[in-house]
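Memo to structure team: turn this sequence into structure tokens by end of day. - J.P.
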Amino acid sequence: MKTFARTNIIVLLFVIFVLVSGCQTATPMPTPIPTATTETVPTPTIETPDTDTVKIAYLSPSLRLPFWRNVSLGIHESAAKADMTVIDLDSRQKANVQLQNVQEAINQNVKAIILSPVDSTSAVEVLESAEKAEIPVIICDIGAKSDRYVSFVITDNYKGSKDVGEYLAQVMQQKGWQADDSALITISLARQNGRDRTEGFKDAMITIGSPVVSILESQDYTQAESLLFVEELLANQPNLRALFSEHNEATLGAIQALEQEGKIPEILHVGFDGTPETLQAVKDGKLLALAVQQPIRMGREAFNATWDYLNGENPPKEISVPTLLVTQENINEIKKELEGNVYPKE
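Reply from structure team:
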């Protein structure tokens, strides 16, 4: 028994010796490398600002209308020369869309906003939003019931309408129609420029004693709307001798209605704003005269004010761009001034 116990002790010591020796000489196993999965992890997109190009936004009431497209053209032409990018945001004649557009401009980190408001009242909220975001605003036409903007590019709408109204009044007097009725198709009277145009024309009619018997306010600014307005006037105003339409589409729709009824010689028609089509109507004798704004020039002036402000200068609070009175007598002489300021050069 003693011999067996001794033998067991010897075997046990030998096993311990082998184990200790193995631990001292064994090479440590490397930490396992995780096996790659087949799932693709998208690389994060990092938007790096373009430091070479400054971005501004133009908020228009409706790019469907030629006038606002030409304002935009003037802005884009000038911005391109200065290597600046312009984002056009169309408010589609809706105040809520206009407010969405100013938020979009803010989200796009524009350096300035050029605003042609849907109307003067809704412009106030746009100006407040831009001010909170510390984005300067330059207003181009229409106006706002607030002065919290850098600069306002404006046409003297009252004077332009009074000038064309006075020209109409002279012709009415020559025909002995000075006491006969007159009517208007207006732009929105929620806009300051709409009120100014209406008052300017009414004051011209007062000078000859022609009563303004109807004021029809545009809602959708289409030729079809204006055509219906004129049909209504012809049906309800038998003594009508004069008509003033305050925007291009109203003018074209009114010409169509008057032509259809054979009333062009009997009703004298003048308009505000000008396109190649309405200017041709003056030349053809279908339209007596136009008070023509210069939308491309206005767009350039709005951009120039923006440029000056972004470069540390203080542009004038108000920048006035005159209207041009266009008649059959001067249309050929004034053509060069119209091209590139009122409509694009051919």
